[in-house]
Every structure is written in structure tokens, then in C-alpha cells.
Amino acid sequence: MDTIKVNFENGIDQVEILKAAQILKDGGVVAFPTETVYGLGADALNEEAVQKIFRAKGRPQDNPLIIHVVEEDLSAYVQEVPPKAQMLMDTFWPGPLTIILKKTDLVPLKTSAGLDTVGVRMPENDTAKALIKAFGGPIAAPSANISGRPSPTNYRRCVEDLDGLVDMILGDGNAIVGLESTIVDYSVEPPRLLRPGFVTLEDLRKVDGSMVYDEAKTRAQEEEIPKAPGMKYRHYAPKAPMTLFLGAAKDVEEAVLQEMEKELLLGKTVGVFAPEERKTVYNNKNIIFVSMGKEEDLADISRNLFEGLRCFDDHGVEVILSEGFPEVGVAQAIMNRLKKASAFNIVEV
């Protein structure tokens, strides 16, 4: 397949937007930017088009898709919007929040992975909004990467993964959030946080104090059909195995240094993933150090996270040693991604 590639370096080109919208109307697939990560879109109401997303990504068939909208009238796609869910929409939409609701029959089971629920989001990115508006309906869109790999946060990584596999790729700079959307489930009572994101648990509870989050329970349910993307399968993973170190800062530094020396003695190519401030700590010319960003700027670390993980693939490292964070606020979402990237290979020190 010859992929049409357009990068909006000088602003949105409406002609190209209309071309991408027509591809979607014809049942094709288009990668496009959002404020979270880049997405791979198809007509959410067309089963054959949705199937092309699964094929292009190598995505498991029981992994549901999120539908992206620009209008708050969801009556065609969901049975009802509970009052507290509406309050969340009023507070955080457009933005990085997905809400799971009971779907109508208009949304195919292929889109919802056989479930009677569907996740809905209104993105904030201007290109995404222009594309959805030009298309004139909901766009189903998981992240625009080969399934399991770190999600792409820029045009170059989309092309790297999907050139030749999709009909069109639209570029529009770097994602400003860098983590997939927060996902909350309002098809159950009390509502549950299923995937942490930039809209934090603390943010959610300011609007709906009944929101619950139990990571252990969420992990236990990964063996069932997942209700949201990113729950069941190894996600966000670089090619090399990764170990995540948790604990007091000095203890973590010592543990990483010890493991680093051990792997180097075994002749391994070692990568270390840590905040910028730790670059002098892991000052060894024989390792690949990738900065997460400034330690006190969690928004910066969020933006850099997936690109940092992909950098290790660029360098062909064989082992990755990563620092972790106390799970407060946005760090909860960062840790969710790091745990999955490491396949929960965690060392507590």
C-alpha cells in the first residue's frame, strides 16, 4: 500500500483534511495527531473499516477501541449519560478523558470488541477536531503504533510504524500530553478509573467523589475481556526487557548502578531511563542514558516518556533499567505506563 503522508508544518491544510475525511468515508484508515498520542482512525460505525485498524496494528480482536467525537450529543452512540459523567465532560472535554458508557446498537460489536459498552472521547487537538468534523461522524482510533510498542507522540514515529500499512498519515507536531487518555467507566456503580492519565484521580474526585481505583483489581481483570485499551496486553514496551526500580532516591540509584555494572560485565548493551538530574549519577560512557525530563516537571516527563522508550530501540540496547516515581497525581499515569512497559518486572529497594 502506498501511504499518503502529509505533515502540517505550516498550519492545517483544509484540502488535505478533506482528502483524509474522504478516505475515512470510503472505509480507509488514517493516522492523525491528538493531544495525547497519535491515533489510527477509521469510521467507528463501519465494521470492515474498523477491522483494518486491527490488521494494520496487529491488534488483538478483544481489545476495544475508543470513538472520538466533536459534538457532546452522544445519544446516537450511547444509551444514557449519567449526571456525574456529564459533569466530567463539561469539566474536561475537549481533552484527555475517555468515558465508558453503555452503547447503542449503532456502534458495531467489532468496535467495542464484543462488549455492550464503548469508550468516548472529545480530543482537543485542532487537526483531530478538523478531521472528525470533516468526516461527519465518530472516528474509532487507538494509538497509531504497532500493537504493544510505545505509542507515537510525533509524526516521524507514525511513519516509522505504519508507512505502507495505512492509507494516510497526517502530522501536526509533537503531542502536548504524551500519555493516552484517562479512562473512566460509568457503566458500573460506583464509577471506576480503569486507566490513569493526565486527568488524575485527584482531578476526577473533585468532580465525582465516588470515583474508585483499585490497581490490583484492575490487573486481576486483565484475564477477562478488557473494557478499555491498555488493560490486558503488554503495552508501551520497547524491544529490550526493562526492569523498574522503586524506592527512596539514593537506594534506587545504588540498585541501578549495581545492576548496570553487572549487565556490563556480562557484555550487555545497557540503557538507563531516569530524570535529567540523574545524568551525572549514571555517568558511564558504556551505557545509553535517556533523560525522562526534569524530575519536578511531570508534564515534561509525560511528554517525553514514549519517545524516550523508543530511543532505546534506536540504540539497540539489550537491557533497560528505569527509575520510578511515587504514585501521586500525574505520576500515577506515568507509573502505569512504566509498569506495563516493564511487564511488571519491578524491583523494590
Describe the protein's architecture and organization.
The protein is of the alpha/beta class and 349 residues long. Helices cover 33% and strands 18% of the residues. The protein contains 11 helices and 15 strands. It has helices at residues 14-25, 47-57, 83-92, 109-112, 126-135, 155-162, 201-207, 215-220, 249-265, 298-315, 330-341, and strands spanning 4-7, 30-32, 39-43, 66-68, 97-102, 117-121, 139-140, 168-171, 182-185, 192-195, 242-246, 270-274, 287-291, 319-323, 346-348. The strands form 2 sheets. Strands 1-8-2-3-7-4-6-5-9-10 form a 10-stranded mixed beta sheet, sandwiched between helices. A 5-stranded parallel beta sheet has the order 13-12-14-11-15, with helices on both faces. A hairpin with a 6-residue loop joins β9 and β10 (192-195). α10 (298-315) runs parallel beside α11. It is globular, with a radius of gyration of 20 Å. It starts with a strand and ends with a strand. The mean pLDDT is 94.
